[in-house]
Amino acid sequence: xxxxxxxxxxxxxxxxxxxxxxxxxxxxxxxxxxxxxxxxxxxxxxxxxxxxxxxxxxxxxxxxxxxxxxxxxxxxxxxxxxxxxxxxxxxxxxxxxxxxxxxxxxxxxxxxxxxxxxxxxxxxxxxxxxxxxxxxxxxxxxxxxxxxxxxxxxxxxxxxxxxxxxxxxxxxxxxxxxxxxxxxxxxxxxxxxxxxxxxxxxxxxxxxxxxxxxxxxxxxxxxxxxxxxxxxxxxxxxxxxxxxxxxxxxxxxxxxxxxxxxxxxxxxxxxxxxxxxxxxxxxxxxxxxxxxxxxxxxxxxxxxxxxxxxxxxxxxxxxxxxxxxxxxxxxxxxxxxxxxxxxxxxxxxxxxxxxxxxxxxxxxxxxxxxxxxxxxxxxxxxxxxxxxxxxxxxxxxxxxxxxxxxxxxxxxxxxxxxxxxxxxxxxxxxxxxxxxxxxxxxxxxxxxxxxxxxxxxxxxxxxxxxxxxxxxxxxxxxxxxxxxxxxxxxxxxxxxxxxxxxxxxxxxxxxxxxxxxxxxxxxxxxxxxxxxxxxxxxxxxxxxxxxxxxxxxxxxxxxxxxxxxxxxxxxxxxxxxxxxxxxxxxxxxxxxxxxxxxxxxxxxxxxxxxxxxxxxxxxxxxxxxxxxxxxxxxxxxxxxxxxxxxxxxxxxxxxxxxxxxxxxxxxxxxxxxxxxxxxxxxxxxxxxxxxxxxxxxxxxxxxxxxxxxxxx
Length: 712
What we know:
The protein is of the alpha+beta class. It contains 27 helices and 16 strands. It has four domains: 3-159, Beta-Lactamase (2-Layer Sandwich); 164-341, GAF domain (Beta-Lactamase); 493-620, no CATH class; 624-711, Arc Repressor Mutant, subunit A.
């Protein structure tokens, strides 16, 4: 297989996993140039019955003039997708998928096939062929078309010898691959953000030992060049297992001696194998000295980081082995693989921003996501822009691309001059089909060869659009199921429903106060809505949904409260909060009764009691004043001038009074969470208070003082 055809495999595998179908690519003679990605029992059945190479060749002969994906009836009622990949005028490839049937036609198809082959095996094979609606078929055609466009563009570039000479695109990609962010810097950032005691990476040596090559920990400690073998200690165990593992309370585990001998005394340790081409090429590990690493950190962020570190190591090993353009293809495929495994759209946007700014080395990179219908708050990720610049750039892009004035059809990259900046910006719409879902803006200062790099970034933006669309579709379907179940409670259990409404609102307010993001709190809120429904029913309709875990733990907490001897397992803090709120509402909001709850840790009970007490006091205070916008403005203006609250701090304080969380303030003002936190800290300092409740009370106090002065 030629080098450029090998590069297709990773891209094909990623899309197969992403779309949930089997994919293979053939040449014009019907011969496979990639191995099949994904599983299909019906394809396996056909391989035993027919020569698929000849079948493909026959179909290509019939449809050699097609220029876009088509649906082909391979057997009566059983369809496949066929798509051309035109490299140039003389060379073409074809993409083939596994099979589908139209919704509601399975019984008819069984009848047709039973006349020729009444075997039970065939019936069971057909039963596994998925049914699709017309809408789903159209979506598949669009997504397969997007994949073919990406492949065709890379094939075109690969056949252009001038690309391999001295073009800037390969030079910048080499920087992305090996220089733009060192492994040490990456690990240091993760250590600081994750509040870890240490973090490191070990690589496989030629002798099949693993040697620690990168380490970030206490300044006086280093374990670089320390070695271990497969199965040896914590780190060797994950190599043998082939999957990540978290160990808690390791102080008495003999294996901790590997770290303690070098001055490290971890409380918990987490490690992941770094796997490439089914081979473990290294180990990512981390540990904490004071706090225990949480299970959700281990499962979500850790797995993502392990993939990123694997990609980084691969790039170091690729240098000198692949020519520069092969490096571009591999980088794109690796990034796409990373993006398609992410369930959080914000993480995908962060990847897009970081890749684009490092690829171009320009002043800023900025992504704005179009708000959902009826919403005014837009998600923004920015590197290099701050404060008012973010607001101005977001507003200008929204006006240009999101408003229904016909301009939203601008789907091609373009160079613009933002009204608030002296330099130009390169704009790449993030779209799916003909709908703009967001925009990527990159500072153009000092970078001239956009023609050479625009297709790479456009492909990433196109992939981002497909991911956003798919995530939105899946979320919408799940949300509809959850809402239907929730409404069914209102019809059959109206009293219970009223109590649940009260619970979920209090739980939401409490989690926002705790600093939870929307993505973190939503599964817990859904658990509050659905916890009265039988778990067996929920597992049928919400397979593997994170809400199920919280509901299960809630019910175990109920059992544990009734009989403390049943279980001594630890529960996630979110499940304990859910149980606390339920107990509180059930007791008619009697705070004193929370002390008698045995199944919840005292720390969480104290925090919840403090929150409830502050909220009760705050409600009494707020009721004394008007809640109108003008009233809030007068409140802010009542602060004495010698306190010197800045204009931006007044905007932040105004939203604090309205009950906005830090994340909601950041979204409303188009600034970062970190900036909001700094503003809030400054406000507290200037008002001489320690929390939001005191700040709001202080503002009302100044307002009351002003009114008394006027009366006198």
